[in-house]
Every structure is written in structure tokens, then in C-alpha cells.
Amino acid sequence: MALLKDILYKVKLLSVSGNMELDVNSIHFDSRKVLNNDVFVAINGTQVDGHEYIEAAIEKGAKAIVCENLPKKLNPEITYIQTDNSARALGLMADNFYDHPSSKLSLVAITGTNGKTTTVTLLHQLFRRLGYNVGLLSTVQNQINESVIPATHTTPDAMQLNELLQKMVKAGCSYVFMEASSHAIDQERMSGLKLAGAVFSNISHDHLDYHKSFESYIKAKKKLFDELPATAFALVNVDDKRGMVMLQNCKATKYTYSLKMMANYRAKVLSNAIQGLELNIDQKDVWFRLIGYFNAYNLLATYAVATILEEDSIEVLTHLSQIELKNGRFEQIPNNAGITAIVDYAHTPDALENVLHTIDNIRTGNEQVLTVIGCGGNRDKDKRPLMAEIACRLSDRVILTSDNPRNEEPGQIIADMQKGVPISQVRKVTNLPDRKEAIKLACSFAQKGDIILVAGKGHETYQEIKGVKHHFDDKETVNEMLNLIHNR
Ligand SMILES: CC(=O)N[C@H]1[C@@H](OP(=O)(O)OP(=O)(O)OC[C@H]2O[C@@H](n3ccc(=O)[nH]c3=O)[C@H](O)[C@@H]2O)O[C@H](CO)[C@@H](O)[C@@H]1O[C@H](C)C(=O)N[C@@H](C)C(=O)N[C@H](CCC(=O)O)C(=O)O
Ligand SMILES: Nc1ncnc2c1ncn2[C@@H]1O[C@H](COP(=O)(O)OP(=O)(O)OP(=O)(O)O)[C@@H](O)[C@H]1O
Ligand SMILES: N[C@H](CCC[C@H](N)C(=O)O)C(=O)O
Ligand SMILES: [Mg+2]
């Protein structure tokens, strides 16, 4: 229970009608979840306008409504609060309701098109090894120390987010590392949070279905930095030309990192092999177990955050060098067939290109590279032909298949991808919508020494088809097919 006027602290009130001294149970932005004595926050969404559900929320027992547009007829038993931005109000209310959990620990958020999950996971594991209680909010899963709480979004909604943070405070966490998706920033899921720092990894083509233009996608990411307090740090990758953009008008203490130019934190890739990466960081040569040039950025960002948070650099490098991630990011599937089988979460053109370049760097040139790739349905359509073109350019054989078709026709998604295949490359390509069959085909084409890349779904353990999530796990399927075909 909480007093309505207390949970509205800091919310911009344009008008109030009714009793503010009400005791309320909880806050909901979905009328279907409202129970007696709750507050309903009406948000205009991408599909429908929550304002249309104010009556439904009252019928379910809501005693107070927070909205941008007041209904024509007000119910005298209900308190109506009009604000200028309901989504923002929800963020502030969630922070008040859960008693400001983010101000009771150090919360660091990472935004960027690629590398968020990898970096927060590295930070979580590193700070555990350094002896702290640590929280993690990521696409793959949320965690309080080693205890796992399943994740449905990269960044949870404002209520879930603050509830999780409160649990982390109660578990004695000193640090929480979280991913900040551009959707979450745009939808104000993080409003009201107190950040100790923010990191920008990179920005490339993705989510243009939602943000409409690349400029507004950049703006969404920049909002995270614009709202940082002066007590926080802002760390950006300046090898991405938008890195400096993030720092414009930012009040936080600014830091940069780079593999290519002058920066506060620099690293040089000494060797990039299938066994791992050798980097020179701060004049020290260190081997890491992560593979791929792009992971040099994730390792450097992790090192920089830990150093900014005043951890000892030698201790940080020693622990970081021991960390191995088994989370569907450039993860090798062991087998007896002498085939290098890699499952990776590359689901953007930039990520796919990076992963295939990494494979190109570690291959000998005598083997075939076979790529199995699809694109998600109900997501950015512009990336489909780009990803097919990249797959063809950097592989010897390509099987175009389904990712999560969601509510689209798999054949149509593949046809969109196929438009990116140059005529000269058509003979390399096979279309096979059934992902299991596609993986099977790649495994049957592969000979000893060859490299198979299965990209796009990484850690996911489902395939979403017409609203239903069916069990599907790339790692499990690759393993099964390699055993079936090569252990006969
Ligand atoms: C496109 C998008 O981001 N949608 C998110 C958004 O929903 P929406 O704006 O579409 O909601 P809507 O359906 O239009 O409804 C508007 C409002 O009416 C309410 N409503 C609706 C129906 C009803 O009967 N009663 C009612 O009150 C809804 O609860 C909502 O408050 O707000 C919801 C609540 O926070 C999210 O669950 C939902 O995520 C959907 C499921 C989703 O798939 N999101 C993905 C794209 C996403 O957020 N991904 C990012 C990661 C992306 C990346 O970096 O790769 C993430 O952070 O996970
Ligand atoms: N720093 C990086 N720069 C470019 N590509 C990267 C980087 N780190 C990882 N990748 C590629 O992007 C894929 C996704 O990585 P990761 O899950 O860490 O990103 P993310 O930002 O969390 O993605 P999402 O938006 O889905 O949450 C990896 O499988 C790899 O192919
Ligand atoms: N966070 C991203 C993940 C995409 C993963 C890919 N497998 C797909 O389903 O498109 C999204 O929701 O757009
Ligand atoms: Mg992620």
C-alpha cells in the first residue's frame, strides 16, 4: 500500500480531480491487470491508445487514473491526474513506489546496437569475481548474483525494472549492470532511475521499423546521456562516429575508448584466433577467452567501466582474462567431426558482417564457410536484403531460413532477403524456411575442417510463429544434426 500523493512525487501534474490522500495497492499500465484499489496509467502505445481502456480499468477496480487526456465524463469516485507524458510519469511513479532502489546501489546502463548483452554479462561476472553482490538486467536473463530471473525484454518495463532493482537492493547488491534498449529509452521505461554511469557501444542499422529514421534512432540513444546527472560517468566508443555525439551537452564526467585512435582507454588487438584474443590494454599484453575483433570493444568497455569504478587494473585484467561466456555469442559447439560450428546472435547487418569477418580472420582459406541465416518477422524489413548480401559476400554457401517469423509469412521474409543476393552469388544460396532442416542441410554439406555459422537466434530457446513460441534451440539443433550426420 502507498499513498497516491507520495507515488506522484516529481510527476508533472497538469490537473488533479479527486482525492490525493488515497491508499493504493499497485500501479498498472495494462487495464487487464488492474485489481481493486490500483492506479491505472493510460499510455498511448504503438498498437492502441491506453486512454481507450480507462473505463475498463475503473470497472476492474482502479481508484485513480493517470493520463494525458482526461475522459469527457469524470467519475466522481475516481481521482484523475492529468500529466504531459504518461510513460514518463509511470517511470517516476515506479521509482517512488519501490522506494528509489536505483539510488541505493550503483547502476550502470549500456546502450548501443550491438554488444550490450556481452558487456553487461562480462561486467556482472567480473564484479562477482571481485567479491561484490551484483545484479544483471539483460536480454538473455536477469540475475541477482547467480540466481536467475527469466527476462522477457532487453530492458523490462518501468514497474518490473524497479521491482527487480528493489530485490537487488534487498539482496545487498552494490552494483547492477543493465542493458538500455532504444525502445526502452524512447518509451521512458528508465525514467526516474538514478544512474551511476552510461556506456555507448555503437550504432548501426536496426529497428528502423520502430524509430522510422536513423536520426531518431540516434536521438533515442542520446537521450540516455542527456539525462545523466553530473555525478555519473559517460563512457563512449569513439571509433563509432556517433560516440562524440552522445557526449554533446552531457553533464556527466566524460570518458572515451577506442581501438583505433586517441582515447582515455585504448587497446590494440595483438592476435585474434579461434582460441581467443590477445590485447594490449594499458601497456599490458593479455590473452582473453572471448573470440572476435568486436569482442575487443566489449572487453575494453568492461575494463574501462571497472577502472572508472576504481577497481585495481591488474586484478581486473586477471579476472577478465579467465571469463568465458556460453551465451550464444560466437559460441562453438563441440563435435567429433572436426567441424567448427558457431552459434551467434548476429541479427543486424553490422553484427553479421563482424562475425563473418572474424571467421574470415581465423580461417585458413582451404575450408568452406557455410552460413545459416534468417531475419525476424514484424521487425525492420530494410535489414533483410542487407543481411543476405553480407552472408553471400563472406560465405561459400548460404542457407536462407526463418528466424522468428512472428506474424509474417516465412516465405515472404526469405523473398525480401533474397533481393539482396547479387546475381553472381545466386548459385551459393539455398532457401529452406524450416530452420531445423536448414541447419541439417548445412551440417550435411560440411566436411572436416569446414566452418558452419548459425546466426540470429543465439541463446533463444524458442521460435515464435504466429504468436506461439515453440521450443527451438540453435545450439541443441546443431549438436543433434552434427551427431546424426557425422557419427553414423
Ligand atoms: C514495440 C514495443 O516496444 N512495444 C512495447 C510497448 O507496447 P505498445 O506501445 O506496443 O503497447 P500497445 O499494445 O500499443 O498498448 C498501449 C497501452 O495500452 C494498454 N492496453 C492495451 C490493451 C488493453 O486491453 N488494455 C490496456 O490497458 C497497454 O498495456 C499499453 O500500456 O510497451 C509494452 C510495455 O512495456 C511492451 O511490452 C511492448 O513490447 C513489445 C512486446 C515488444 O516486442 N517490444 C520489443 C520490440 C522491445 O521492446 N525490444 C527491446 C529490445 C530491442 C533491441 O535492442 O534489440 C527490449 O527492450 O526488449
Ligand atoms: N561490440 C560489438 N560490436 C559489433 N558487433 C558486436 C559487438 N558485440 C557483439 N556483436 C555482435 O552482435 C551480436 C549480439 O551481441 P549482444 O547480444 O552482446 O548485443 P546486444 O546489443 O545485447 O543485442 P540486443 O539488441 O539484441 O540486445 C553478437 O552475437 C555479435 O555477433
Ligand atoms: N531484441 C531484438 C532481438 C532480435 C532477435 C532475432 N532473433 C529476431 O527475432 O528478430 C528484437 O526484438 O528485435
Ligand atoms: Mg542484448
Question: What does this entry look like structurally?
Answer:
The chain is α/β, with parallel strands linked by helices and 488 residues long. It folds into three domains: 2-97, MurE/MurF, N-terminal domain (Udp-n-acetylmuramoylalanyl-d-glutamate--2,6- Diaminopimelate Ligase, Chain: A, domain 1, 3-Layer(aba) Sandwich); 101-320, UDP-N-acetylmuramoyl-L-alanine:D-glutamate ligase (3-Layer(aba) Sandwich); 331-486, Mur ligase, C-terminal domain (Protein-Tyrosine Phosphatase, Chain A, Alpha-Beta Complex), CATH 3.90.190. The chain has 16 helices and 26 strands. The strands form five sheets. It has an eleven-stranded mixed sheet, sandwiched between helices. It has a six-stranded mixed sheet with strand order 19-20-24-21-22-23, sandwiched between helices. Bound molecules: ligand UAG, adenosine-5'-triphosphate, 2,6-diaminopimelic acid and magnesium ion (MG). Adenosine-5'-triphosphate (ATP) binds at residues 112, 114-118, 139, 154, 179, 201-202, 294, 297-298, 329, 344-346, 350-351, 354-355, 458. Residues 328-458 form the Mur ligase C-terminal domain. Meso-2,6-diaminopimelate binds at residues 379, 403-406, 456, 460. A motif (Meso-diaminopimelate recognition motif) lies at residues 403-406.
